[in-house]
Amino acid sequence: MQSVAGNRAFSSRVLAVPRSRAFVGLAVGVLLGTLLVSVAGEQPAGAFGPSYCSGYRWDVKTGQDPQASQVNLGSVTPTTVGYLTKLPAHSNLPDDYRLPPTELTQYEITGKIVDYGIEQHDQDYHVVIQDSSSSNVMIVEFPNPACVPSSSPFATMAANARSTLIAHVAIGATVAIKGPGFFDSNTLTSGVAPNKIELHPVLDINFNPGNDFSMSATPSSRTVVAGSAATSTIGTTVTSGVAQSVALSATGLPAGAVASFTPTPINSGASSSMSITTAPGTAPGPYSVTVTGTGASATHTTTFTLTVTASGIPPAITSTNQATFTKGVAGSFIVTASGSPTPTLSESDALPAGVTFTPSTGVLSGTPSVMGTFPITFTANNGVGSPATQSFSLTVVGFQITTTSLPSGSVYSRSNKVLYSVKLAASGGNRPYTWSLASGSILPPGLMLSSTGLISGRAKVAGTYSFTVQVVDRKTRTRPPTQNTASATLSITIS
Q1: For the stretch 115-129, what's the b/e string if a residue is b when 16 or more beta carbons lie within 10 angstroms of its beta carbon?
Q2: Which pTM value belongs to this model?
Q3: Contact 336/318 with Cβ under 8 angstroms?
Q4: Which domains can be identified in the chain, with CATH numbers?
Q5: What is the pLDDT of residue 23?
């Protein structure tokens, strides 16, 4: 069989399944080259297992990274292949940490298997999943248990999911799959999502699930003045099988309140706008409203909390009007507002690529891929008085030295045995950083600068010394590779 880029390819010969139409489908798919992977120059060492347990972002793939424990395995976010494949792509992927929120979230998708195979280098199974109701496809991966240490929070679930796959895999089978989001860099001839997102590792796979859906309310709570209305988007997601008609209703409303849905019924996978109109005489207090979705094969509920107040306070945005993010580094800022009822937030103007705003939480977050200053307008509205607006400025800086000044030191002597030691700092780019002195720059006699950015030693001569330091980050694995450089002029006074 033909292979590519380092003699790595998928092989049907190592797939332990019975000889059947599924096996024949795999062999045809592999021989056609539909799952060949290009991995040239992608061989950083793995932290566990045999020598072949290595690859790009290996620790993140196998749950050996420091953030693996932050993935909430007790919570599942139902979604679709179409939604995941439309998330923003990431050009600079970190080796040893996860990109929030996608890589800290366990998703569940439902679709059919259209291709699969085993990767010869590390024995991972790659499976191509197609959306239940569209042509969108993406890759999900089942890692080799020999490459996943028992200390990984994913170890047991991933091994069980792989065993289930081997026992039941078949082209055309409908499956429900759970696993954390993962942005890969492999280039496949087919099946790869446009943004190269995967579920990796797969933590659960269920073959031929029935038709089912889930429900959500966004936002899940609102506060209104008696006599006004509250709105929320009731969302549904197909979690298994195919879409079905879902009729919506609400119970637990306060006396005199009326709920309406536009539209209703809906097909699972779609959403409806719920409006709850209160009466002027509605008693103040919190009300737990149960929204029920009744489908052909399943019925589910979601809860919406409605708080009614007797009087209102106009909205005001209380957070600062500026924030700074670093290109290539995940950043976050929370927009806060006051008022009664609780204001809803919205944003206008263009955000930098890689940054999003979540109105329900007020969180501005993401990993920007461009530098510059971006004007943004935030609006808070609660139906009392006029909406509040704020002109906000988001500045995205590049790779830079963040140390702006250095502490003074003293001459080392028998009576003053104090060593000088200060660590320089930088942000952005790709770690690790490498530090050096610029050509012609000299530190105070007795001090030296290490490649890790530590200025240390025994100062010998008093005086004020000015010098320029420079730092470079790790080269990217792109072709051609890129590398960032930054410099700063600092001074040390020795007395």
Answers
A1: bbbbbbbbbbbbbbb
A2: 0.41
A3: yes
A4: 12-209 (2.40.50.140), 213-309 (2.60.40.10), 313-397 (2.60.40.10), 400-494 (2.60.40.10)
A5: 34
